[in-house]
Amino acid sequence: MNKIYLDNAATTPLSEEVIDAMIDTMKMNFGNPSSTHSFGQEAKILIENVRRQVADYLHVTPAEIIFTSCGTESNNMIIKSSVEHLGVERIISSPMEHKCVSESILDMKNRKGVEVAYIRPNEKGDINLNKLEELLKGSDKKTLVSLMHANNEIGNIVDIKKIAQICKENNALFHSDTVQTMAHMNLDFSDIPVDFASCSAHKFHGPKGIGFAFIRKSSGLKGIITGGPQERSLRAGTENVAGIAGLGKALELSLNNMEAYTQHMQDIKQYTIDRVAAEIPGVKFNGRSSEAENSLYTVVSLLLPYKNPLIGLQLDMKGIAVSQGSACSSGASKPSMVMMMVLSEDEMDNGTPLRVSFSHKTNKNEIDAFVDALKEISKDFVIENTNVEHR
Ligand code: PLP
């Protein structure tokens, strides 16, 4: 069976060039970057070159890039260290954040007594920035705002520049989980006054187990993993040199091809929307995922007009991989918080959310096969209520 992968928001396949760069590094650059001899120094140079490459992409200084094991670690570090080392007493966030952010915030609330305020999004998944301003002006407590750049389940993109400016005007720190947008969009942090951001290489055809945190130098954030002086003492532990080489190669490929990749995925996304809308009567699109603006070109979130908790499995049996939620919550029996925010109770009870996510490797034949399979499965369901009001 020819398998089709449409779950690229969960992870992406490694590029051949990335695999080659990593193998070369593992063979040639096995030294410990902390060693002072030439083996160590060669590995150290490789790391610093990638750090410079990342810094150039974001228009920041290399000292502001700290390599970590993943997006989860970066987000944990930023949120927990803001509380433990920067005196943050209050966190403003939304219920739509990735679990690694929401659970870190909850941990700080439970263990450190941090006050937490959530801005409830509207039915499109939009965050009301007037509400953010109102909350910021309503307290003198040292505050961290944590709002993701793009949502991994419905694809909504927020205006991080505007949010960063509001935070600056109100003396709050601003963290944005940028895991779904890093290397997919141009990001200029000399123009966007964000304090902290995160990245995970496996979201753009790099390896798992490597990412980085952007930590604005002026913030004074410290690390939470203690030990040796690696990563300017912000993240102890011998560096994942091959992973860093892979991240660097994946970033290089993304940046060199960004225009072509963006165009291709926008086309694929529109094609998917058009075909699904034409072939599945009553289907809806969650959040802003059917829009070209303010939505990731990698993600379409559907609501099928019938209840079928087995849809993911049935598509998988036909060789098609999609997600019924995000990878991190799909094993759970509870509906995801994001879906609870953007769907009505009626839609939750009578519909089935499905996330389809693309990469530059996705082609229209794969989308055709997905839509045909979805049509075939949908035939078995009586579509009773296609007029459910979408909220
Ligand atoms: N943040 C977002 C928005 C994500 O989509 C993910 C991964 O799904 C993460 C954080 C966690 O990244 P990692 O898998 O590198 O821990």
From TrEMBL:
Residues 4-370 form the Aminotransferase class V domain. InterPro entries: Aminotrans_V_dom, Aminotrans_V_PyrdxlP_BS, Cysteine_dSase, PyrdxlP-dep_Trfase, PyrdxlP-dep_Trfase_major, PyrdxlP-dep_Trfase_small. Keywords: Iron, Iron-sulfur, Metal-binding, Pyridoxal phosphate, Transferase. Signal peptide: none annotated. It comes from the Bacteria. Pfam families: Aminotran_5. It is an enzyme of class 2 (transferase). PROSITE patterns: AA_TRANSFER_CLASS_5. Its cofactor is pyridoxal 5'-phosphate. Its EC number is 2.8.1.7. It catalyses: (sulfur carrier)-H + L-cysteine = (sulfur carrier)-SH + L-alanine. The keyword Mitochondrion does not apply. The keyword Metal-binding applies. PANTHER family: CYSTEINE DESULFURASE, CYSTEINE DESULFURYLASE FAMILY MEMBER. Belongs to the class-V pyridoxal-phosphate-dependent aminotransferase family. NifS/IscS subfamily. This is cysteine desulfurase. It comes from Chryseobacterium formosus.
